[in-house]
Amino acid sequence: MNPTIHPVLAFLQTWWVELVCGVVIVAVVPLVAGYLVLLERKLMADMQARLGPMRVGPHGLLQPIADALKLLIKEDIIPDHADKMIFWLAPVASMTAALTAMGGIAFGPSFLVARDINVGLLFVVGVSSMGLLGIMLGGWASNSHYSIMGSLRSTAQLVSYETAGGLALISGLLLAGTLKIRAIVAAQEQYGVWFVFLVPVAFFIYLVASIAETNRAPFDLPEAESELVAGYMTEYSGFRWACYFLGEYSNMIVVGAVATTLFLGGWLRPFPHVRWMNWLDAVPAVFTAAVGAYCVYRAGKQPVRVQVWFMWGVALMCFAVALILGVPLLAAPLKFMVPGLNGAFWFLLKISGYIYLFMWLRFTLPRYRFDQLMHLGWYILIPLAIVNVLAVGMAMILEMQYGWNRWLAMLLTTMITLAAALYLLYLNDKRAAAASLAAPPPEEPSTEDSYAG
Amino acid sequence: MLDKIIFFFFAGVAILSAAMMVTRRNAMHSAVFLITTLLATAGIFLQLRAEFIFIAQVIVYVAGIMVLFIFVIMLVSLDVAVHEMQFSRQKWVALFVTLALALEVGVMLWSSRQVPGQGFLLPNAVPAGKLPPNTEALAHGLFDAYLLPFEIASVLLLVAMVGAVVMAKKRT
Amino acid sequence: MMPIGYYLFLSMALFLIGAIGVITRRNVIVVLMSIELVLNAANINLVAFSRIFGDVAGQVFALFIIADAAAEAAVGLGIIIAFFRNRETVLEDEMDLLKW
To answer: What span, in angstroms and rounded, lies between the C-alpha atoms of C66 and B61?
Structure first.
């Protein structure tokens, strides 16, 4: 064989699956992120008793495509004294970090993007934390006050909550005993419960930390429109802004995947090995078929012809997916596919639930002021996370060496951590009361009318 | 074969970025090139099957130390075009001494490459498939044999944290 | 794994580039960054030898060096900030308070 062709063929032969997966991630995830934006607008509309985007495409479903087209053909403005190399580099860094982190997560027992790396979870967390370089450099390169302040605030926020989130993950990792993603889910299968039921406080700390990590409300001060124009993204327009935005939404998927893997059982169904709950195995297929049936029902009620066809198309797609999920359950020679397919369904359902929680919190809670944000991160979450790690370690020793019941030990852990949380909140209240006492009393409004003629 | 390509790619990026780093006029550009050098070094660690060191390098160096550097550069950035001289007055002496050192080490490495019976015996590396899992091995090393240096390192980090806060605080 | 000479050469090259940076640059922050480069070169050396001997001690020590580099960068940058507040300069030959 020709020796110069052979190495390339050998490379492709071993690595073609990973290459294809990589290409799929880079091509598909931005599209998914775009549709997440549409989903957010629709959910926001639903919670505000209106309809959201309805004009572009049936029920507004082509809105992300229109948005992407608009962003692509927009004029690329670079501010006058901006540092060109770094201005170009920053959005690329942010998006690369988010997409590379997606390469480490597993959607099912055999749906890995690359090999199952030894430090799987830490890889995902570490690489996604590289995105903050993109934020910092972007703010600085724009050479504008709002950008620099926004980027400094955002970086400080991300660094603070990264520590708290990492410590919360450690509590879950103590239970799992390993960093490999497949082994973590296998550990949850072995324990018989998702880790969220064993260490709920760690899950909530990670939830709060991940909301702050992705700059979502109520921690979105750096990019809120009414605060600093748009923070570090102010001077970016067109495709560069799209890169930042897609990086943020991909980051949401990544933190959702990390939380799902470690706390929510990954690709396990709700009661993993309880025999009388085996009917839950049929839920994916039945659920998808039900969604398809609902689409058929609504198709009859659409006012416009193209919407009727569209609903029928969606219904057929749902039925096809339901068939793919359901047939291996019934056909005996295909039963080996069940854990993989069902697993992917449960995994995606859990990530969707997590992201829905993010969006719900965005529409409900008001924004934190920056000093309140930093106080929450450093004074409350980090001490709480440290106490949690100590308590979980103690509970594991009680269980393994002294033979306590696992649930009793974990309940003790949760009680200790909640007591610590209450104490921290009490300290916070005392500090806030002292600060308001120390503040000067508000001036009485003057009775002089300055507009009087 | 793939091993070679990966090594040469990361090594090339590392050396090129390092050279760019020490020659940029703008400190922020230097920082960005240091980031690429650190990422290339992390790639070398990954190629050496030291996965935990790879991710520790990314998290601590790239997403930690470099963020600190960039913060400080943002704070102390004067008008960078004002700097007339970028290199100090000893640059030629330094370059000469460094090249002499490079020549010395290069000759030593080259002449010791295939001398049987001389120098110390290097074993053949364990093939990659038979390596123990890196994180577990590192954990055994850290908490078993090298526990005292580990504790000292944590005290060092605490002292450094206190010191950095004290140094950088504004005197009110 | 490549023959060890390649890693040693890479380590030496990075060390020397870092040494050039430390000695010749005027901006103190770039000097600190070159010191980080030197530490990285040492790390590559340690991890390469750890791989070839199969002993994890090299990687443990590399981890300590990473932690130490973080501590040193933090304190060094604190000192630079404190000095900058007083003297408004980051160039090494203008930091000559003790010169007579």
So the answer is: 7
